[in-house]
Specification:
The complex is a heterodimer of chains A (364) and B (78).
Chain A (H helix, E strand, L loop, with lengths): L8 E8 L2 E8 L6 H5 L4 H11 L4 H16 L5 H28 L3 H19 L7 H17 L13 H11 L17 H9 L20 H9 L8 H20 L11 E7 L2 E8 L2 E9 L5 E7 L2 H4 L5 H6 L10 H12 L5 E7 L4
Parallel strand pairs in A: 1-7
Antiparallel strand pairs in A: 1-2, 3-4, 4-5, 5-6
Chain B lengths: L4 E9 L3 E6 L2 E6 L11 E5 L2 E6 L1 H17 L6
Classes of the chains: A alpha+beta (364), B alpha+beta (78).
Chain lengths: 364, 78
């Protein structure tokens, strides 16, 4: 791409005898929203967000609008809140499905058609009023269920049907599994929102580029949601398990959306925090994890400050969960030695663009 | 946080692939997740895949915004 900004993460591994001894991550450029938004009316800002963040446009819009409402002290009706959560969950489902294709099923035309089918059918199901369910609703359900079967979805535990594209993807991940060292894993949850929001309001300019909570850099996203949901650390955070968690969440999202029961997913899909004095914050749980927005308004209600913190800044932090997962890993001595590393990076986010560099360094 | 870039479809290839032009630079992408793509359409591209079709005016507005981002961003390559 000729546009002159960094749109990829650089991951550089230093190796001694095939063991990863150092991991360096150089992040992408973050849009400087405060400067891009300066002096522009609110309606034009809402139009700008999908142009900047087309992968998670609904999440950004919902978080931004909710933060402004919180700053104004506005109450939101239950119906509006429900509609917004459904938008966020539908986008989450779409992004997770897209990630399955980009990360694991690319070049499989039948899988692409099935994924398009699920996305299309779920949109119909979400758009159909419960009281007016008729043949179109039944047809959409049948379309989605046929597509899920084609991909290999079996039930909600994330284990696909044998011989299907997703089962083959899991087998490939298990074959190329990286030998990883034990590492401590913590997970970002709704319980962390307030300290994060307070740090954002405190004006620490580096915080949204390199966030931490008392030096702790927890993971956010599908795996974090799965671990919080099961309150278990028994599962190993390997790419195959992460893919199973992704498959299981897709199934749960579909079930919630087609039942019009968005609150059944998990706590904290959309949370607002009004701190008074024209300050407001909102957090949404999007496909990649927790997305934070803070805004400050002047006495006339004009935006004087806006900041956001994206999930990728936690997961791809220089001391974050991806780095911890790669540190100390043993790479296979084969032509496919990069495959395990790429699978590990992709398991955090199959849709993040990255460049991988491996360099052997002298033994100390 | 990932940015998708608008691109014009220059040629549709077999196997759900296409050649697109991004600000004058050609590249090959997958259009498997986007239905009914034809030459002249604009699509949003991310990591080598078309996300969705967009209309040309919206593509231009998005490119303008990304150029503005490039001009004010502190961490950009020259």
């Amino acid at each position: 791409m000729s546009l002159p900004f960094r749109n990829e993460v650089d991951v550089t591994l230093s190796l001694v005898g095939g063991v990863v001894v150092a991991v360096k991550i150089q992040p992408r450029a973050r849009p400087p929203l405060a400067r891009l938004f300066a002096g522009k009316p609110l309606t034009s800002l809402l139009d700008m967000l999908p142009r900047l963040f087309s992968l998670c446009a609904a999440a950004h819009q919902v978080a931004f609008v909710s933060a402004i409402e919180a700053a104004r002290g506005q109450e939101v009706s239950l119906a509006t809140r429900c509609r917004r959560i459904i938008r966020v969950l539908l986008e989450r489902l779409t992004e997770l499905l897209r990630g399955l294709y980009v990360g694991h099923l690319a070049n499989d035309i039948a899988s692409a058609a099935a994924i398009r089918g699920v996305i299309e059918a779920t949109s119909v199901l979400v758009g159909t009023d419960a009281a007016a369910r008729g043949p179109a609703h039944q047809e959409a359900r049948a379309q989605a269920e046929t597509a899920f079967t084609c991909l290999g979805f079996s039930d909600q535990d994330g284990t696909p049907t044998e011989g299907t594209p997703l089962a083959q993807a899991i087998a490939a991940l298990e074959e190329n599994a990286l030998k990883v060292a034990a590492a401590e894993h913590t997970f970002l949850s709704v319980a962390d929102d307030l300290p994060v929001v307070q740090r954002m309001f405190a004006g620490d300019t580096d915080f949204c580029d390199y966030p931490d909570l008392d030096r702790r850099v927890p993971e956010t996203g599908v795996w974090a949601r799965d671990m919080i949901r099961h309150q278990s650390s028994a599962k190993r955070p390997e790419p195959a398990e992460r893919l199973r968690a992704r498959i299981a969440e897709v199934a749960r999202l579909y079930a919630c959306l087609q039942a019009h029961d968005p609150e059944a997913m998990e706590d904290g899909v959309l949370v607002s925090y009004g701190s008074g004095h024209g300050r407001g914050a909102a957090v949404v749980e999007c496909a990649r994890g927790r997305l934070y927005y803070t805004v400050e308004l002047d006495r006339e209600g004009q935006i004087t400050r806006v900041e956001f913190l994206a999930p990728t800044e936690w997961n791809f932090h220089p001391r974050g969960p991806l780095v911890r997962s790669l540190q100390g890993a043993m790479l296979a001595e084969s032509r496919a030695r990069q495959d395990g590393v790429r699978a590990m990076i992709g398991s955090f986010d199959p849709c993040v663009g990255f460049r991988l560099n491996l360099r052997e360094v002298a033994d100390a | 946080m990932c940015l998708a870039i608008p691109a014009e479809v220059i040629k549709v290839l077999p196997g759900e692939m296409a050649i697109v032009s991004v600000d004058g630079v050609s590249m090959e992408i997958s259009i498997a997740l986007t239905e009914d793509v034809v030459v002249g359409d604009y699509v949003l591209v991310h990591v080598g895949h078309a996300l969705t079709k967009i209309d040309p005016a919206e593509a231009e507005r998005t490119l303008d915004l990304l150029r503005e981002f490039s001009g004010v961003g502190p961490e950009l390559h020259p």
